[in-house]
Write a structure and sequence with these properties.
The protein is built from 15 helices and 12 strands. It is an alpha/beta fold. Helix 8 packs across helix 13. It has a 6-stranded parallel beta sheet with strand order 9-8-7-10-11-12, with helices on both faces. A 4-stranded parallel beta sheet has the order 3-4-5-6. A two-stranded parallel sheet has the order 1-2. It folds into 2 domains: 172 residues, Glycogen Phosphorylase B (Rossmann fold, 3-Layer(aba) Sandwich); 172 residues, Glycogen Phosphorylase B (Rossmann fold).
Length: 352
């Protein structure tokens, strides 16, 4: 529960599942992280006390055998692969569902053994009964590059708890922003989020622009050094992790997303829920399916730094309809709508 988008989605789903229909059990590799406080108090939590997923294979098999669930639902790449490998050892009466959280073919290139990961996806991912992706792009990636049967695939966009976000977005007493045109980026400090691309973009903007970044990660020192080298110390604030990013999203002028690839960027949906528009690269993943030019932001061809800077300036001059952005986000991604879609697949083999 270390603050990732997939973890937040799972917590949102667990919170809103109908307890008259489901009895959720949360199995964690290790019971730690920023989001522990979000776990609903009525849920049984099983702590496998494993430092990494590959060290927990026997424990995962054991807990499934002990609990005898109707449905096994997993997310995150390493864990999904392990569950796919062990799936044949369990009854066909159990439903095994994977929620894929990223664009696999692009992410696998960053693995230590990319060919091994590609091979595993081709060989074992078909063991799942249902595979949920958050975007058409992600579905097509699995079908075209890994031969996954499209009949097993279901596209369900990530949920947005608009009521919760609306409440938290008003708790902004801790948020201190300079008297500038404020840009916000949210996400782990790593290769995927492309902050090393975003900083040179900032040099193309004048001093009236300020960037705040919420997040932690392994590249923190490297990125801080880049900020210093580019002379951006006074114009970029590395604010660390925030358990209430919505307060920032509500106060800034624009969300910027410089990711090299994504699954479906939760931060875009969350910022839109606050009425804040987004400028993003139309990189591999589902971002281009949720950002509509002139409605809730603008897309930029990857990875054109000059065009991104110009589009930020364009967004500053543009009169976005804040209320319309909030209404559209609620209509398309509200938790009530998404829960119904998950309900349909969770009950698919239970005959309900």
């Amino acid at each position: 529960m270390n603050g990732g988008g997939a973890e937040r989605v799972i917590m949102t789903l667990l919170t809103h599942l109908d307890r008259d229909r489901y009895e959720p059990i949360l199995v964690m590799m290790k019971k730690e992280g920023r989001y522990l406080s979000m776990i609903p108090t009525d849920i049984e939590v099983v702590d496998l006390k494993a430092s990494q997923a590959r060290f927990a294979v026997i424990k995962i098999i054991k807990v499934i055998r002990e609990k005898k669930p109707d449905i096994v639902f997993s997310t995150l790449a390493y864990l999904n692969l392990i569950v796919a490998i062990i799936r044949p050892f369990f009854s066909s009466e159990m439903t095994f569902i994977a929620r894929e959280s990223n664009t696999v073919s692009v992410r696998n290139k960053r693995e230590k053994y990319p060919r091994l990961f590609d091979w595993l996806y081709k060989k074992v991912y078909k063991n799942f009964d249902i595979i949920v992706t958050q975007a058409r792009y992600m579905r097509d990636d699995l079908v075209n590059n890994y031969g996954i049967d499209s009949e097993k695939m279901v596209i369900i966009y990530n949920p947005v708890d608009t009521t919760y976000i609306a409440k938290k977005s008003q708790e902004d007493s801790e948020v201190k922003l300079p008297a500038k045109y404020n840009l916000l980026a949210v996400g782990k400090l790593g290769y995927q989020k492309g902050y090393d691309i975003l900083f040179p973009i900032m040099t193309r903007l004048d001093d009236s622009y300020h960037l705040t970044i919420l997040g932690e990660g392994r590249d923190k020192e490297k990125l801080e050094a880049q900020i210093k080298d580019l002379g951006l110390t006074s114009r970029v604030t590395m604010a660390g992790f925030s358990d209430n990013p919505f307060a920032y999203m509500n106060k800034v002028d624009l969300l910027v997303l410089s990711s090299r690839y994504e699954g479906l960027a939760n931060v875009v949906l969350e910022a839109n829920s606050c009425g804040t528009a987004t400028v993003a690269f139309s990189a591999p993943g589902g971002v281009s399916e949720i950002v509509e030019d002139g409605k809730n932001g603008f897309l930029v061809a990857p990875f054109d730094e000059e065009a991104f800077a110009e589009t930020i300036m364009k967004a500053r001059r543009y009169d976005f309809d804040t209320e319309a952005i909030m209404i559209a986000t609620k209509e398309n991604y509200a938790i009530e709508k998404i829960i119904k879609q998950y309900d349909a697949i969770l009950m698919k083999k239970q005959g309900d």
